[in-house]
Design a protein that fits this description.
The complex is a heterodimer of chains A (about 525) and B (about 160). Helix content of chain A is about 40%, strand content about 15%. Chain A is an alpha/beta fold and about 525 residues long. In chain A, α6 crosses α13 and α17 packs antiparallel against α21. The longest helix of chain A has 18 residues. Chain A is globular, with a radius of gyration of 24 Å. By secondary structure, chain B is α+β, with helices and mostly antiparallel strands. Chain B has 2 domains: about 55 residues, no CATH class; about 80 residues, Glutaredoxin (3-Layer(aba) Sandwich). Chain B is about 45% helix and about 15% strand. Chain B contains 7 helices and 5 strands; from the N terminus they run ααααβααββββα. In chain B, strands 2-3-1-4-5 form a 5-stranded mixed beta sheet, covered by helices on one side. In chain B, β2 and β3 form a beta hairpin. In chain B, α1 packs antiparallel against α2, α1 runs parallel beside α3 and α3 packs across α4. The longest helix of chain B has 12 residues. Chain B is elongated and about 50 Å long. The chains are: A alpha/beta (about 525), B alpha+beta (about 160). At the A-B interface, α1, β8, β12, β16 and α17 of A face α2, α4 and α5 of B.
Chain lengths: ~525, ~160
């Protein structure tokens, strides 16, 4: 019997002993005389089932999870005899969590061997680049603009407009910088793509280079992601060997090089201008804008700086056309968003879908409520700088503008779920504390404001002149929001003020009117 | 976790030379020095400044800005616990208290015998399998009392 088995090496699976499971499969199969081929893939994104081992069958890949080393013998029996097994989830693509998704950016993640250029090409990779080489720079920029793609890092700025600015910024050295400093708690989509389908990011950056006339690209990846760094290094080397990077890409006259650079544990370097300073070898402090990076970016040259997901969406847009991508989503939020369900949620993982599902559908229906089984009390959307939403706002559609209209943001698409044991005053204090720890120190509202914010929160929690200190907190948030140089100080008020507005009882204040009406 | 070289200027110069050509070489140099010696010795700063035509203040400013760069030799083990929101939602704070109590140190501190250093980390990207930890580069998801106990036993061996 020949068995072809797929075991994820995504960090989420590895953190749950996927390496030991893969080794146990190899060892047990050898002992039992079963010919087995084990491919280490990325993750499908159903993290509550990790490690999820999959076996190739005529019906498709059949999954078994969550696996432990002691399950290996039994699962091999089930595979050999075609017998049912309690961990079998059936054909993975037919699983309700997978079948409900619209996987464009993550189409290959969890399926292909992330170290193999051949496997990437066999699964439709590099069709976008081929199309881009036929279209030429202007038409590439036009396609990305028409697709409606907006920056997936959080700011939501139209990607095509950014590219157009750099394309028109004259001749000379230009750069493509990929922001892979995914520091928001509750987000891991960049990590999953880098570990599970790194070539799609490389292809997207290459297309960006051709579009704007840049020959050098940097991927700035955070040091907390050692598995992603290794996967990127492997993939970049393979792309170079396969002449997908370097001089004369795919026989064209275009050249493009990529270097992987590693951050050093500074959250603020996810802010694009701090990232550029860090890449230049400086302290990661925020730059005042203007000048925009598109005009004066890395080493003072015109620079496209995009998030991993933005760049990884580009090959599909080029391959299938701007219209195909634009037809997903609602309003001004076009295409799909890889949404990350995290924290205290039963079905935690990655769910890619067109914009427009409501927060309630995502948390209750797809996420299955809390992991603890207790009621959902609050969710933080968009990372540590995103607002806390109560159940009363669960009708908010996942859309840039709809979240902004309710004093929130979708950010990088992370949703962290909390059950009813959460203390929202504590969470508000933490938001200030985090800002104080991570502030780059350049502007006063953030550097000093965050420390004052922790002190004010401590007084509110201790019931020290509570009413006056709540007013002071609001005033301080106002200063931080409008006076800070970047989103760190500027957005820290979102989690603080949303916690205060929606959960005033946790601050020792009377319940809000909305709750009273329920 | 040792296997680091003792600080010496000749090796430091070689490491700096190997990495100095890249544009914006300072972070790659600091990472390479830390991989070699386990930390960035203060004596490396003037060597780097000289190689990159920077001031010593520039180099010192960068070394001290980033949480990753150690300025003294590391403890035998480094235990990082994620303190960010997703891990908080799954009881991370309680596990952090257990670790503090068991080791008798706070975050950012090492045990007096130099056996283990406890560090906070703000997100390992394992928010879907929270709470998470990293021991000497090895990641652990769905941390609970039993798994934490095993990690603590490992560093105390």
């Amino acid at each position: 019997m020949n068995v072809k088995l797929f075991v994820p090496q995504d960090a989420a699976a590895v953190a749950l002993d996927a390496d030991a499971v893969a080794e146990a499969f190899a060892r047990t199969a050898a002992r039992r005389g079963i010919a087995i081929e084990i491919v280490r893939t990325g993750s499908r994104g159903m993290h509550w089932l990790e490690p999820l081992a999959e076996v190739a069958t005529e019906a498709g890949r059949v999954g078994y999870g969550p696996m432990t080393v002691s399950d290996v013998d039994g699962v091999l029996d089930a595979i050999a005899d075609g017998k049912p097994h309690p961990l079998c989830i059936g054909v993975v693509d037919a699983h309700p969590f997978m079948a409900r998704q619209q996987r464009l950016t993550f189409a290959r993640c969890g399926i292909v061997d992330p170290a193999s250029l051949d496997d990437y090409v066999a699964h439709g990779g590099y069709r976008g680049l081929a199309r881009a080489l036929v279209l030429g720079p202007q038409a590439i920029v036009a396609a990305v603009t028409e697709s409606g793609l907006r920056g997936r890092g959080g700011a939501g700025f139209p990607t095509g407009i950014k590219w157009d600015t750099v394309a028109k910024a004259g001749d000379g050295q230009k750069y493509i910088v990929c922001n892979a400093d995914e520091g928001d708690s509750g987000t891991f989509a960049d990590r999953m793509i880098m570990e599970g389908d790194p070539f799609v990011l490389i292809e997207g950056m290459t297309i960006a280079g051709i579009a704007v006339g840049a020959t050098m690209g940097y991927i700035y990846v955070r040091s907390e992601y050692p598995h992603a760094i290794r996967a990127l290094d492997t993939a970049v080397a393979a792309a170079r060997r396969g002449r997908k990077l370097g001089a004369g890409i795919d026989g064209s006259s275009h050249a493009f090089h990529i270097e992987v650079r590693v951050g050093a544990g500074a959250y603020v370097c996810g802010e694009e201008t701090a990232l550029l300073d860090s890449l230049e070898g400086k302290r990661g402090t925020v730059r005042a804008k203007p000048p925009l990076p598109a005009h004066k970016g890395l080493f003072g040259r015109p620079t496209v700086i995009n998030n991993v997901l933005s760049l990884a969406s580009v090959p599909g847009i080029l391959e299938k056309g701007a219209e195909f991508y634009r037809d997903f989503g609602i309003g001004r939020s076009r295409g799909t968003m890889p949404i990350q369900l995290a924290g205290n949620v039963r079905h935690a993982g990655l769910f890619e879908v067109g914009f427009g599902l409501t927060l309630g559908e995502l948390v209750d229906d797809i996420g299955g409520g809390t992991a603890s089984g207790r009621p959902v009390r609050a969710v933080q959307v968009g990372g540590p700088l995103g607002a806390y939403f109560p159940r009363a706002l669960f009708d908010t559609p996942f859309d840039y503008e709809a979240f902004a209209a309710r004093d929130g943001l979708i950010g990088h698409g992370g949703i962290v779920v909390f059950d009813d044991s959460v203390d929202m005053a504590h969470q508000a204090r933490f938001a200030m504390e985090f800002c104080a720890v991570e502030s780059c120190g350049k502007c006063t509202p953030c550097r000093v404001g965050a420390i004052r914010g922790v002190e004010v929160m401590d007084r509110i929690i201790a019931d020290n002149r509570r009413t006056a200190n709540v007013e002071l907190l609001k005033d301080l948030c106002d200063t931080m929001k409008f006076g800070s140089l970047c989103a760190l100080g500027g957005f820290t008020p979102y989690p603080v003020l949303s916690a205060l507005a929606h959960f005033p009882e946790d601050f020792g204040l009377p319940p809000s009117r909305r709750q009273a009406a329920e | 976790m040792s296997g680091y070289l003792a600080w010496n200027e000749a090796t430091a110069r070689a490491v700096i030379d190997e990495n100095r050509a890249a544009p914006g070489a300072l972070l790659p140099i600091l990472h390479a020095l830390q991989e070699t010696f386990g930390y960035v010795d203060r004596a490396a700063e003037p060597l780097i400044a000289d190689a990159l035509n920077l001031s010593r203040a520039d180099v010192h400013g960068v070394v001290t800005f980033y949480a990753d760069f150690r300025t003294a030799p590391p403890a035998a083990h480094e235990l990082k616990l994620c303190r960010a929101e997703a891990c908080q939602s799954m009881g991370g704070d309680r596990l952090a208290d257990t670790a503090r109590r068991r080791l008798g140190i706070g975050f950012g501190e090492a045990t007096p015998d130099g056996r283990v250093r406890l560090e906070p980390v703000y997100c390992l990207g394992l928010c879907s399998v929270a709470p998470s930890a990293m021991l000497d580069g090895r990641i652990v998801g769905r941390l609970d009392d039993r798994k934490l106990e095993a990690l603590l036993a490992e560093v105390e061996r």
